[in-house]
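@channel sequence for tomorrow's demo:
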Amino acid sequence: MALSDNYDLSDIINQMESFVFDELEHQLGAIADEDICKCNDCILDMACYALNNVSPRYRSSLMGSLYAKVETDEVSKSVRGNVTEAIQKISQNPLCGNVL
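structure tokens (generated this afternoon):
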């Protein structure tokens, strides 16, 4: 018996995804398209790399949502640094094969 057969697990969300996606969008917006590959594969790799290196913040309720959305300075620095590292790593070694 799978847990998902008896319980609705769709409300479990990692709030860090939102923080990382917002920061990735911000940082990529400051980089010219011709300077790094911004294909779908590379962007997904960057997001995954950053998410794998930040501490998750899961929530499943409204109260949890309010708590998880509080972005402290420490969280901001972690997200910013990990997104920067992800962009550098993936753009230096894109798995898509696009070399700029």
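heads up for whoever presents: The chain has five helices and two strands.
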